[in-house]
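Progress report, Aim 2. The chain analyzed during this reporting quarter is listed below.
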Amino acid sequence: MYQALYRKWRPRTFDDVVGQSHITDTLKRQIAAGRPSHAYLFTGTRGTGKTTCAKILSRAVNCHAPVDGNPCNVCPACLGIESGAILDVLELDAASNNGVDQVRALRDEAVYTPAAVKKRVYIVDEVHMLSPSAFNALLKIMEEPPEHLMFILATTELHKVPATVKSRCQQFSFKRILPGDISSRLSLVAGQEGIDLTDSAAALLARLADGGMRDALSLLDQCAAAGTTVDDARVLDTLGLAGNLDTAKLMEHIADGDTASALELLGRLYAAGKDVGAILGELSCLTRDLLLRRTAPQGAAGLLTGGFDETTLRTLGERFSAPRLMQILTLLQQANADLPRSTSRRTDAELCLIRLCDVTLDESVSGLAARLTRLEEVIANGGVPAPAPVPKAAPKPAAPAPTNDPPPWQEDPAPTPKAQPAPAPVEPPPAPASKPAPAPAPSGESGSAFWDSFVTGLRGQISMAAYPYLSNRTQVRGVWNDGVLTVWVPDDFTKTILNKPAVTEIMAKAASARFGGSVRVTFSVGTPPAETVSASAPAPASAQETGDALDALLDFGKFDNITIN
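Predicted structure tokens for the chain:
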């Protein structure tokens, strides 16, 4: 009769246990010294060796001739315990024996001395499933057990075990087994079983096992059933996974915002028998790797899943910001959590991809944060909308007709009169460059008429945290008078934002270049004098002259006409 690989290759000594040397070495020393505890508590995730070590320990404490703390596995006690013939070593499942009556029966039976071995051992698996009454019934005998009695408790949920039980046990925490150790063990098992397993497939199975040796052996058993070479393609086909190449391609479509290509690739994978939950899970792993590399580039190497090469991670990582990756990962996690309750898994996966490709469809906080980050990057790079007026102004002079009475329905009539004054020479293109010309303006200039062009010249120099407040022409104005630049702000909060050395030094330097001499920058809360406000009347014209749509975006209260993509 065929026996599953995880049962056939269960370790029989402490030395065979993989990846838990911090536990097995301690247990071996206790057995060799003859000082085992009366109660042990083994904790950790599934498939890491808790029950295996409990079985080995039950044989080691009863072995007639232990070898360096390991059971010999040849004496009658070891063979009887391993085969189940000796009833003094009993393995219980707390999930099905969780009542107080079962524990009382166990307690009453435990006082009797063993018939065939030195110690009566009770292995209680998933002990957290015991009821509170059952735990209370177990406490007294665990605190003062007979000399011949030993308890070995195992659980995957330590937080559900009462502190009174923990305090009566020696606790050992089993950690996840490293992928390298799992891969080596799989190669050893495959060689002994005659399975043609490639190194890359062994590494892939180790990654999919998520630190559990039992899961890795079960996956190998499943993939080897076809009787052919177990390589990456066989593993992906057997387990219904998309593979790192298709996952990276799907991520490229998301970066491009190509919804049609992303849905087409998902449909092709779905038709090939891939599970949409597995596809979203792999996409989530890739997004996690990209986020770790961006937020912790130095220490992320040891935290990556290892399923994607360095070139892929570097190429894709340059196309996403951290908030965008957070938004993608949040959507993927939510979609994966909702799939088990979905009536149409494919539709939910498609909706998730559509939201990922078009960030404007995601109205969550993470989606808005990703859009704002993209907007900040555009503004920091000079603004994508800025070049648009340049080609728009160039073709207008070529058409001399629309000089009289522009129709009311015509969009953007302002560039037409602007192009008329200087069409003949090539001087108008340098005209924008002459905008810095006001910088060396006459030193006799005073009041606030200069403020609009002055603030526009500061774009790109002031931080994006302060510039929107400074460029709010309806609330913030500057007044120049005898070497002092007084900035009038509406409230103390705006003053706190702007009155910082990083802002005032740049403003003082720009004012000094414009008016000459040393400049002192001060801030006042309130409104500037009336004559200063009237002097600022040309502000709308200067804003039109710049032809820069970014000014409208930075002004508060004018977001209605701006579309953020």
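The two ends are 63 Å apart (CA to CA). The longest strand covers residues 149-155. These observations will guide the mutagenesis work planned for the next reporting period.
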